[in-house]
Structures are given as C-alpha cells and as structure tokens.
Amino acid sequence: MVDRKTNRVITLEEYIIQAQNKFPGATGELSQLLRDIGLAAKIISREVNKAGITNILGEDGSTNVHGESVKKLDLFADRQLISALNRSEITCMVISEENDGIVELDNDGGKYIVYLDPLDGSSNIDVNVSIGSIFSIYMRKKPGSDELSEDDALQPGVKQVAAGYVLYGSSTLMAYTTGLGVSLFTLDPSIGEFILSDTDVKIPDHGTIYSVNEGSYHSWDKGLKQYVKYCQVEDPATKRPYKARYIGSMVADVHRTLITGGIFIYPNSSQYPNGKLRLMYECNPLSFLIEQAGGMAIDCEGRIMEINPESIHQRTPIFIGSKQNVLKVKEFLDEYA
Ligand code: AHG
Ligand code: MN
Ligand code: MN
Ligand code: MN
Q1: Quick one: pLDDT at residue 167?
Q2: Is 63 close to ligand 1, i.e. is its CB under 6 Å away?
Q3: Whose CA is nearest to atom 14 of ligand 1?
Q4: Cα–Cα distance list, 103 to 34, 172, 185, 189, 289 (Å)
Q5: What is the whole-number distance in angstroms between the Cα of residue 118 and the centre of ligand 4?
Q6: Which end of the chain lies in a sparser environment, N or C, as judged by fewer CB atoms within 10 Å?
Q7: Is 250 a pocket residue for ligand 1 (Cβ < 6 Å)?
Q8: Residues 6+ apart with CB under 8 A from 269
Q9: Cα–ligand 2 centroid distance for 315 (angstroms)
C-alpha cells in the first residue's frame, strides 16, 4: 500500500502516528508502546532468520511454569520484548508465558500492562517452520497505585486496548488492532521497516479449511468428533470435504484462517482437560483480532473475550475463525453436550 499524497510506502511508525493524530487527546503512550514492540520484533526476526547460523536453536535446558522445555529462542524473544517495553515509562508490568509471575518493570507509574507469548510455536523452531510472537495490552485497573499485583492484570479480553502478533514466516509480518480494525505490515529487511500492506482486514464469512490436531481425536467430546466428520463428508453443494491444515504454531494457523477463512480449533482433551492454549496471551489477543476482522472466537460455552480470568496462565479450549464455521461447530457442540 502506498500513501496517496506522497505516493510512497507507509511505515509502521508513520501509520501509528497517523492513527494517533485522529485522537487529539491521545498522549502518544500507546503509540510508543506499539513502536517498542515493533523494534523488538525486528530484532527477534533477525535472530530467527539466522537461527541456523547462530547458537540460538535447541533447548535452554530449563522448563517453564507449564512444564514445557524452554527453547533458547523462547528466552531470547522474552528478553528482547521485556527490555524494549522497559525502555519507555509506559508499561508497569509484563506477564509472559516464560515467567511464572508478573514481571515488574522499572516504571511502576506506567499505565499499561502487556501480556506476551514471546515465541509461539516453539516446537517448530528447530525444523524451520513458521513461528510467532503474540501481545495483548490492557490499561491498569488502578492507574498510579504503587502496588502491582496479578489482580490488576486479571481482566477479560473485552478490556484489551490493543493486541497483535508477529509471524516469522516466508516474510515477517505484523498484525495489530486497537479496536478500529486489523492492519497488516510486512518487514522489508532492506530498510529495516515494517511496511503497511493491508488495513481493515476482513475474514471470509465462511471457509473450507479446518485446522485441529487430530492426534487427540480419541479423547474429544462427541460434538467435536461429529463436527470433524461433517467437514469430511463429500457434499459439493457446501464445498465439502474441507481441507485439513495444521501447522502447530497458533499464530500461523490463525493468520492463515484470517486470510483464507475457515476454523482453527484447540479443544479440551484427556491431555489438556481445559485446553492447551493460554487465555491471556494466546486466545484473547487472537480473538480480538479475529473479531475485529468480522470473525468469531468461542470456548465450549461462549465468547472467549468474555471469560473472566482467575489466573494469569489459565488455559481454555478455543474455536476461532469465520463466523459461519464457528456457528456450525457450536451447533454440534450443543447438540451433543
Ligand atoms: P508455545 O510454543 O507458545 O508454547 O505455543 C504452542 C501452542 C500453539 O502455538 C499451537 O497451536 C499448539 O501449541 C500446538 O500444540 P500441539 O503440538 O499439541 O498440537
Ligand atoms: Mn511454550
Ligand atoms: Mn504459544
Ligand atoms: Mn510461547
């Protein structure tokens, strides 16, 4: 996309400032926060693209609060994002997949709270498959109060002021929303800038791709089993059978769903009775983006973004994507509940 006035590309920084200028009372703090995340994303992207050369592949040797073995790139991304957020006096605390509790930043006066999945899709790092970073931004419930607590951060997804992801794929792409639609940027490594590629992105109302790890089929609820069977039935009138696509990096699976339409599912199973994906830094931010693009995101009961969180690392099942596809799976879940 080019700026009609100057007939040249629009960078992430310029776009953020143009968006901020539409709100005369804006302080510019959220803009600065988004720019900080953009900087960290460029540094992470450079490391991801050199992963085979620098000693950044493989395990770190530690395990995180989820019992997952932590990869070196998980920690590199975590450190880059937290230090970028620590530089400007805007964010008071970070909650990240790779830290057990809240990470208090130097600026306890900061009014924003940032949730991070610093590196999503870690199991794909060493096999050169797309991975991502996810962020979700809230205002503090009690701005200015000096004590920082988890309680300040436990807010439903509808309270997010911004959310987005970076996808380190065939190119590095950044998507974010502040509640006014979804904008996409592509990193141009030759100038080191994220360049605006799409504004107000809309997800197709129906899609013909379903995305779920069928390895845990045996332990699914009956409604989901029936829904996947429905996807596999030959019926040209409804463009079935659908295609099955599963990358194993949520950011990549959800980004594909945003662009092509369809549905991504991570259900509850015997291994993950409450689902595997984390509400606050995987499901809520991606649900915000997909809803902003005209899609839907639910758990077995209702809207993901209306879940009142009880803990910062809690998990939830998720059914996210095109409205018609999510409504159809909900029909099956309700019928066999
Ligand atoms: P993370 O790498 O941040 O821990 O997230 C991995 C998640 C998510 O990216 C993906 O959708 C899911 O794990 C894949 O899980 P399975 O390997 O169980 O399918
Ligand atoms: Mn992980
Ligand atoms: Mn993740
Ligand atoms: Mn992760």
Answers
A1: 98
A2: no
A3: 248
A4: 19, 27, 29, 31, 25
A5: 6
A6: C
A7: yes
A8: 216, 219, 220, 275
A9: 12
Residue 169 DSSP class: S
Residue 68 alpha carbon to ligand 2 centre in Å: 6
The tokens of 72 are what? 């070196």
Which residue positions form the known binding site?
Answer: 97, 117, 119-123, 213, 246, 276, 282
| Residue (of 204, 184, 203) closest to 194 by Cα position | 184
Quote the pTM value.
Answer: 0.96
Can you spell out the DSSP letters for 39-100?
Answer: HHHHHHHHHHHTTTTTTT-SEEEEE-TTSPEEEHHHHHHHHHHHHHHHHSTTEEEEEETTSS
End-to-end CA distance of the chain: 47
DSSP string, 278-309: BIIIIIHHHHHHHHHTT-EEE-SSSBGGG---
3-class DSSP state of 243: strand
pLDDT tens per residue, range 294-306: 999 999 899 999 9
Residue 120 CB–ligand 1 contact under 6 Å: yes
R_g of the chain computed on alpha carbons: 20
Distance 121 CA to ligand 2 centre (A): 7
The Cα–Cα gap between 202 and 60 comes to 39
Asked whether 178 and 132 are in contact (CB, 8 A), the reply is no
Q: Length of the chain, please?
A: 337
User: What is the mean predicted confidence (pLDDT) over 252-278?
Assistant: 97
| 3-class secondary-structure state, position 311 | coil
Q: What is the pLDDT of residues 20-74, one digit of tens each?
A: 888 878 888 999 999 999 999 999 999 998 876 677 777 888 888 888 887 899 9
What token pair was written down for 71? 């990869």
